[in-house]
Specification:
The structure holds two protein chains of two kinds. Helix content of chain A is 43%, strand content 23%. By secondary structure, chain A is α+β, with helices and mostly antiparallel strands. The longest helix of chain A is centred in the middle third of the chain and has 21 residues. Chain B is an alpha+beta fold. Chain B has one domain. Chain B has two helices and two strands, in the order αββα. Chain B has a two-stranded antiparallel sheet. The chains are: A alpha+beta, B alpha+beta. The interface between A and B is medium-sized, with 37 and 29 residues.
């Protein structure tokens, strides 16, 4: 699915999410619901800074950080890291945390499915496999 | 004890209980929660040094998102 479409679906499904974006590991915005590209880029960089600082704060050397909730009186920020990109969402105060994380991870997974770099090769069955299938059918 | 006074005591008790529950559960307080690949989670309350460092970064994201 297209990343922009995944974000559109996300904001339609989750009424708690006010704005969201998907960016790569360097902060380049892939898709966003922000008003303009400049603010989306700024938010992506801030989200990456937050993630990097959180990795330092929670580092224990054995497990990797996968998601963050930052709850403030003004609202909450969610950051989820996928294989090569992050998804960030902003909500009002005291959202349903589990639900927002679930929707954000789903959005990230769907957007990651867009244009895989190494598309799976089409499976070809060998003659012997076809023979086996035929014998099973019989 | 009059009926009104009894209801007043019940209402005050409920409000105090709710305030205690919110305080103990962390609801309504600023915090940072970190989730790890192993399924573990660490929560930093607003008065921790970690939250003091991370919450301003989160505010930057909020500010960007809301213009």
């Amino acid at each position: 699915m297209d990343a922009a479409q995944a974000l559109a679906d996300l904001t339609e499904i989750s009424t708690q999410i006010q704005a969201a974006l998907i960016a790569d590991e360097k902060g380049a915005v892939i898709a966003s619901t922000f008003a303009d590209d400049a603010t989306a880029s700024q938010a992506a960089r801030s989200a990456l800074d937050l993630f990097a600082a959180a990795e330092d704060a929670g580092r224990d050397g054995t497990v990797s950080l996968t998601q963050i909730l930052a709850a403030t009186h003004a609202g909450s920020v969610f950051v989820v890291r996928g294989d090569d990109r992050i998804a960030t969402a902003v909500t009002g105060p005291e959202p349903t945390v589990g639900l927002v994380f679930y929707d954000l991870k789903t959005c990230l997974r769907l957007s990651a499915a867009e244009q895989p770099e190494n598309p799976p090769k089409s499976k070809r069955s060998t003659r012997s496999e076809k023979a086996d299938e035929t014998s099973v059918d019989e | 004890m009059s009926r009104t006074l009894r209801w007043g005591v019940v209402a005050l008790g409920s409000a105090a209980g709710l305030a205690l529950w919110r305080r103990s559960s962390g609801k309504g307080r600023e915090r940072i929660e970190l989730y790890f690949s192993a399924g573990s989670m660490v929560s930093f309350p607003e008065d921790s040094t970690e939250a003091a460092r991370l919450i301003p970064l989160a505010r930057r994201v909020l500010t960007s998102a809301r213009g």
